[in-house]
Design a protein that fits this description.
This protein has two domains: 150 residues, Rossmann fold (3-Layer(aba) Sandwich), CATH 3.40.50; 84 residues, 2-Layer Sandwich (SIR2/SIRT2 'Small Domain'), CATH 3.30.1600. It is built from ten helices and nine strands. The strands form two sheets. It has a six-stranded parallel beta sheet with strand order 3-2-1-7-8-9, sandwiched between helices. Strands 5-4-6 form a three-stranded antiparallel beta sheet, with helices on one face. The longest helix has 17 residues. The protein is elongated. The structure holds ligand BV8. The site of ligand BV8 has 35 residues, from helix 2 and strand 8.
Length: 242
């Protein structure tokens, strides 16, 4: 039995599925990945730009960079892999929850409804001084740094930067969903960034079958029940289509 057949066997009759996704899920839509060959940050270290210190140092540079990514995301379209996930989610008996590290909104644009955005969204802004609340902002280009309407400090992208905590409660919610899943499907993540990467350990520790889709091996590949080597846009339709 080949890998797809084994994976399809583990999925048959399953109702509760969690999909843990990273930048690789958006790659075939045209979004650059963080650590791929082309790299995401032309010549800029991730930790230099996607950090509170980076924003403090040069807010205009960071806004410009998020503005570019917002434009890139809006110019992208969901691919057949996104569509296969959403079709599965729409099955009457299905309970599919997306736990994504992505901030590009492509899953939602494909029609996904239950999406836990571990690292926030390109399309929301919040006060950099901590005033509560986030608000949607779809403008492209992202106008240069703007004052918080409440305190006048700078607004910033509502994404989780390195050295920042994830939104309160979201990790626990993701852990609960994975702990009660029948299968965990991990798509397009290098498994480098914590604490997102350790979510897969919950399934492994609870003997919940783990399927991984990635054109490259990752530290998870040898631990997964089935490693499906290939791009999400190609593998997901053959894995999920009924
Ligand atoms: C935290 C949002 C607690 C922003 C992102 C020192 C001090 C403090 C913390 C740390 C430290 N050292 C380490 C840490 C922890 C740190 C961390 O993990 N660092 C890494 C670099 C080692 N984590 C944090 O800081 C987190 N917070 O720990 O808080 C704390 C607080 C204070 C002090 C101490 C601790 C916050 C992490 C969140 C960072 N924000 N994004 C933005 O997007 O602008 S992370 C960013 O990386 C994205 O969210 C991205 O999703 C994520 C993970 O990357 P991947 O998604 O996996 O993408 P990658 O490019 O790596 O891989 C793509 C994969 O796809 C590859 O495997 C490739 O083969 C595959 N692929 C390619 N094509 C396809 C494909 N797959 C399928 N189909 C294809 N076609």
């Amino acid at each position: 039995m080949n890998a797809i057949e084994r994976a399809r066997g583990l999925l048959s009759g399953v109702r509760r599925l969690v999909v843990l996704s990273g930048a690789g899920l958006s790659a075939e839509s045209g979004m650059a990945t963080f650590r791929g060959a082309g790299g995401l940050w032309e010549g800029r270290r991730v930790e230099e730009v996607a950090t509170p210190e980076g924003f403090q140092r040069d807010p205009a540079l960071v806004w410009e960079w998020y503005s570019q990514r917002r434009g890139q995301a809006l110019a992208c379209r969901p691919h057949p892999g996104h569509e296969a996930l959403v079709a599965w989610e729409r099955r009457p008996e299905a309970h599919l929850v997306h736990v994504t590290q992505n901030v590009d909104g492509l899953l939602q644009r494909a029609g996904a409804e239950r999406v836990l955005e571990l690292h926030g969204s390109l399309f929301r802004v919040k006060c950099s001084a901590g005033c509560p609340g986030e608000r949607e902002d779809l403008r492209v280009p992202f106008p240069h740094p703007q004052p918080c309407p409440r305190c006048g400090d700078l607004l910033r992208p509502a994404v989780v930067w390195f050295h920042e905590m994830l939104p309160a409660g979201i990790l626990e919610e993701a852990a609960r969903e994975i702990g009660s899943a029948e299968v965990l499907l991990v798509v397009g993540t290098s498994g480098v960034v914590q604490p997102a990467a350790s979510l897969a350990d919950i399934a492994l520790g609870a003997a919940i079958p783990v399927l991984e889709v990635n054109p490259e091996e990752t530290p998870l590949s040898s631990l997964a029940d089935v490693f499906l080597k290939g791009p999400a846009g190609k593998v997901l339709p053959s894995l999920l289509d009924s």
